Amino acid sequence: MSSEATSLPNLQALALFVAVVDEGSLGAGARRLAIHQPNASRLIARLEAEAGAPLLDRHPRGSRPTPAGLVYAAHARELLEAADHFTDWLRTTRDAEAPELRVGASMTIAEHLVPVWLTDLRRIAPSTRVLLEVENSTHVIEDVRSGRLRLGFIETPHVPRDIHSRVVAQDELVLVIAPHHPWADRSAPVDAAELAATPLVVREGGSGTRDALAVVLGDLPQAPPALELGSNAAVRIAVASGAGPAVLSARAVRAQLESGELLRVPLDGVGADEVGADSVGGQEASRTGHGASVASGGVSAGGVTGGGLQREFTAVWTGPRRLTGAAADLVAIAEGTATGPSA
């Protein structure tokens, strides 16, 4: 071996040499690695110079390894395999040490907003691994308080005082029915007393949507639910099947209203005060001052404007009041105030 062999080997050249041995010709080996043949010839010549001996016997029908080349190829395979193991280890270590953000979101937020927020966050912080848990607002609050989640997004107006909070978005709750429901032919809006007296299809206890409805109905006696279901999709299907009316986020029923699968009934005098963070609100909670829309006119399909209840979506967290890192970026994105590529 020559003294030039003391330098570190060129892994690309070693991979090319092994490919030539496997394929039986320099051209085929070069094609396997997408290397232009003139460059491949130079790499092999350099290997032979470093080895101090011919490694290939070249003939018109291809190339075969010399006895020295066979030994060289065996050691090259070992080195390439070790390099692959090293690369895998490095990738695993890097991924394990990447920043991790555990986020919880209530159903409506998770279905309709979080996917867009996380796409924007990936542009700002591509190395951050986000673990998302979808659960109702009560469970999100519990997991944030316990430290299991770094950040939560909730729909309930009941934000505890012992966690930090910030309003990040507005939402509208609307009353929807099946096209064959008796209310489909009415011309007058539904008032609070009639809504409270009607068996509704509702989300489970702890849902932000259900909490918001309870706030706007206040002390009015409420009829037992027609059905209690664990997701917006289940509520939509039940309403369309004739189980009864429901109050859901306009985001959750937009497609069904546009298709005519569901109809929207205006509300009158329901929730004269805003459905914002109530007196149990968090340390940074803000209120919008929006009240419920009081709409005239009858039942409608194809739109989600007017005659609904305004409510707030809130980010919640514990620890330092000032968020940092990916958590701060995600809240800024949710507020629509992110800077940089996602703005």
UniProtKB/TrEMBL annotation:
All residue ranges annotated as the HTH lysR-type domain in the record: 9-66
Residue ranges with Low complexity bias: 289-298
InterPro entries: LysR_HTH_N, LysR_subst-bd, WH-like_DNA-bd_sf, WH_DNA-bd_sf
GO MF term (any one): DNA-binding transcription factor activity
Pfam families: HTH_1, LysR_substrate
Top-level division of the source organism's lineage: Bacteria
Annotated region (Disordered), positions in chain: 275-301
TM regions (residue ranges): none
Keywords annotated in UniProt: DNA-binding, Transcription, Transcription regulation
Annotated family: Belongs to the LysR transcriptional regulatory family.
Descriptive protein name: LysR family transcriptional regulator
